[in-house]
Every structure is written in C-alpha cells, then in structure tokens.
C-alpha cells in the first residue's frame, strides 16, 4: 500500500511539473516570436528556435498523454459512497426542442433504483415546443411518476437555460435539487451515488463527469471523440494533480440551502459557464464540490460542420473564460499537431518524424485505454488524427474569439465569462 501511495505521489508530482511547464513553454514561444519580430535574426536561427519550441510542446504532450492513459482506469475504480438516508429529490430537466433520443434520455431518470420520493419537473419556454410531446409520452409510460411541467417564457438574462430553471424552481417541492441537461442519459444507480456523495461531510455540490455518445454521422463522432479522448482524460489529470476545480453542468446536485447561500440560480443568468461559476461559489462558502466515480452519457448530435465548429468553439471559449491559465496549459492535449508543426518547421527532420510517430502511438494508446474503461470497442481509430487536428484548430482559434453563437444568437464574452448580447445582431 505504501509503495502504491508513493507511486501515486510521484505520478501526481510529475503531472504537476508537466502542467506547470507547458504554459511556460508556450509563453516562451510567444515571447521568442516577439523578440524575433523586433530584431534581425538569421533565418536558420529562427528555424532552429521554432523547431525546438514546437518539439518541446509535442514532447510534453506525449508525456501528458501517456500519463493520462495510465490513470484513466482509476477514475471509476474509486469507492462509491452509499446513502445513509434517502431524502426526497426534485429532479429538474430544462428542455428545448425535439432532440435525438430525447424520450430515452429522459426515461433513464424515471427508472432510478432509488427508494425515496422523486419529483420530476420538466420546463420549456414555448407552448409549441416539440419537447412537450416527449413529456406526454413519459406521462403515458410512467403513470405513477410525480411529473410537473412548466411552460414559462420569462427571461432574466442571456443564459436561457438558467432562466428556464429559475421558472421551474417555483414548482420544486423538495430541498434536495438535481439539475440535469436534456441530452444526458444515466444508469439506474445514478441518484443513489449522487445522494450518497452529497451526504459526505463537507460536500456542498455533486457533479458528474461524462462520456460522449454519438448520433450517426461523421460530425457527431468527431464531437464524441473530443469529449472522450480530450475532455475526460483532462478531468482525470486535473483530479489526480489537484490542479482542476471542475463543475459540469450536465448534472448538478445541491440542496436548496446551499443554492440560496450562493445567491440562487438567478445570480448566474449572465454567465456563459454558469456551471463553473456555481461550483466556484460553492467552494467559496467552504464546501466541497465532489465528483463521484460515475459517468453519465452525453449525446453528441452535431449534424454538420457548421454546427460542429460553432459548438466546439463555444465550448473552447467557455473553458478559456472559466480558467485562462488552464486553457493555455491544455495545449498538452495536442501532441500530434505540435509534432507535425515540428516536421514542417524542420523540413522533414528525422527526429521530428519520430516525435510524430510517438504522438500518434500515445494518442492511440490513450484511446484504447479510454475505450476499455468505457466498455466500448476500439473503433474509428484511423480518424483520431483528423479529429485531433480539427480540435487543435478550434483550440488555437479560441484565443482570438470574443464572441460565441448560442442557439442562433451571438453574444460577446467578457474576461469574466459573462454574456452580453451583440447589439448589431
């Protein structure tokens, strides 16, 4: 046991060094570019500097990828907290439109193995919303379920999801609240695990990591790959090093007293990353934000390249607003693009090609490990390099973005992550 703890400590220390070194390397790259721009430097020297820097980024990325591959299995292997009681829960689902497999996703919450009372509150903002048909189907399928439907168009800020939840909260009868997105599917033990974790000493909020489940098509698969082989390993690394402070909006469980203590839901209607802001507010009270050994399914349904790039750009911009330094360090997740840049900058240097091969193998190793943890086949592996290159372009572009498009509307995002509608729209 002591040897295992020592190994884990060494791994965490190594990860911290890599995570801290990556932003320094990138800052050095920017500073060197500025220095070169202001002085006459021989072309050969410029080439050498660029090759060295992008190669260093790629090497750090390979190390990060291999370490994350070795750690992903630990996430679900952690012990689960069993509830000491089964208090009544109000489960709230804000809805918008007829989404892919909507009834199936909603039904997973109505089939919970939970002995306590559960109230279901579904909310839409338009009386003609197609999601109402899904609610009617659920009522027919589960006639004994305690279901309330809220149709309320009131808006309190640009974040329509939070406005929807504010309206729905008026119908919530119980003090233990669980918010879950409409595109999320959970296992039958979801509430048991979440409630048990929330009952641990000092815990004020429980959130859940998630995996991407793709609808048919190339673009949904690309989106799921970003979630499964980029986001999820990042969560594992962040938790292993203690560097990350995540809170994921896919599902959040919190009691009413804590929610009131942080200002209520209405306090977050102007935030792009309202989940991150809520998590930080809970931590500011001295309570913990817990992430149990649980994965929920998140539907990836981007039907076209335009929808894919808009969604991924908004997601990347959200992370940048919530954690600027962490977003800079996320370059670690892109070893292959940096290795290919080294190949281009070095005119095909042998060492750069070897680094590219190492990056490819590391990414495939990570995919294989994640697929095993998720219990899914090792498929679509040949497309992973293409997915990685697309994600790198989105990552680079996020540093120049100040606007996001959300449900057809354009917003400006300030450095604190607050949304302002574009007046010229």
TrEMBL record:
<keyword id="KW-1133">Transmembrane helix</keyword>
<feature type="transmembrane region" description="Helical">
    <location>
        <begin position="53"/>
        <end position="72"/>
    </location>
</feature>
<keyword id="KW-0328">Glycosyltransferase</keyword>
<dbReference type="GO" id="GO:0016020">
    <property type="term" value="C:membrane"/>
</dbReference>
<feature type="transmembrane region" description="Helical">
    <location>
        <begin position="325"/>
        <end position="345"/>
    </location>
</feature>
<dbReference type="GO" id="GO:0006679">
    <property type="term" value="P:glucosylceramide biosynthetic process"/>
</dbReference>
<keyword id="KW-0472">Membrane</keyword>
<comment type="pathway">
    <text>Lipid metabolism; sphingolipid metabolism.</text>
</comment>
<keyword id="KW-0812">Transmembrane</keyword>
<dbReference type="InterPro" id="IPR017835">
    <property type="entry name" value="Hopen-assoc_HpnI"/>
</dbReference>
<protein>
    <submittedName>
        <fullName>Glucosyltransferase</fullName>
    </submittedName>
</protein>
<dbReference type="Pfam" id="PF13506">
    <property type="entry name" value="Glyco_transf_21"/>
</dbReference>
<dbReference type="InterPro" id="IPR025993">
    <property type="entry name" value="Ceramide_glucosylTrfase"/>
</dbReference>
<dbReference type="InterPro" id="IPR029044">
    <property type="entry name" value="Nucleotide-diphossugar_trans"/>
</dbReference>
<comment type="pathway">
    <text>Sphingolipid metabolism.</text>
</comment>
<feature type="transmembrane region" description="Helical">
    <location>
        <begin position="21"/>
        <end position="41"/>
    </location>
</feature>
<dbReference type="GO" id="GO:0008120">
    <property type="term" value="F:ceramide glucosyltransferase activity"/>
</dbReference>
<keyword id="KW-0808">Transferase</keyword>
<feature type="transmembrane region" description="Helical">
    <location>
        <begin position="378"/>
        <end position="401"/>
    </location>
</feature>
